[in-house]
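This follows on from our talk about sequence and fold. I would like you to pick a protein and set down its sequence and fold. Go ahead and set the record down below:
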Amino acid sequence: MHLLTKFNIYLIAFFLNFLFLNNSSASGDDKDIRIISISPAATEIIYAIGAGDSLVAVSSYCNWPPEAKAKTKIGSFSWPKIEKIIYLQPDIVITAGLEQAPVVQQLKALNIRTIVCSAKTIEGLFGAIEEIALAVDRIEEGQKLIKVMSARINQIKSRFEDIPVNKRPKVLLELWDEPLIVAGTDSLIGQVIELAGGKNIAYDAMHAYSRFSYELVLKRNPDYIIAVYMKRGQDKERIKNRFGYSNIKAVKNDHIICDINPDIILRAGPRITEAIDEINKRIYAQ
């Protein structure tokens, strides 16, 4: 559905607020908080801190944990249905920012409390967990989750801390192939590579997620290539068959990884520690 005009938003808000005023007042001041999550990462955080019962609706992309699939859907990640959000009368809507920026503007125009969950670092992710935990009155659970995640990251780092940086495996993580889009150092995924014990060959990418030349890949000769495309299938063979790639270490040693669940890498949520652990095990398997 296309985004609604400002006039239509206010019109819908007026009539729905009027229509449901009696139901709202009858529920009392101690009613449970009502949350709508448009962000798959935020949905995972909410469940991880024990607030899943407060979710009244999620986007169609929110598929983890399995219980999230049973929640009412308010549309896709990019095109949530504003009128349905209003109808469900949430206390808080959690979004992912960036692509959802127009939605955030509309929700704020309707005076609906909106939290943007868009972490760019591990520290930012911990901050998002704290913010969401505070908003849903799960502060202790939020702190516990952060401690568990921190402990797991430290345990993984202990596996390779004695290996000099210049001896660690060189890694390229591809987000897309045509054009080649990679995770730079200034990104959460770039940080994930480093926390897993890898050296990101796209260290000088201009942006957090940036185009990268095939020529540079050949020159920097990664030991491992990790592909996390939204499309699946013949990714491994396609990478092997690129011009000049037969001389890359990752191809020679069959170190092309295409079977890690993209969600655990691409979502800034609790499962990011699973991504770090899985990448670490793969690039230090030999």
Notes: The radius of gyration is 21 Å.
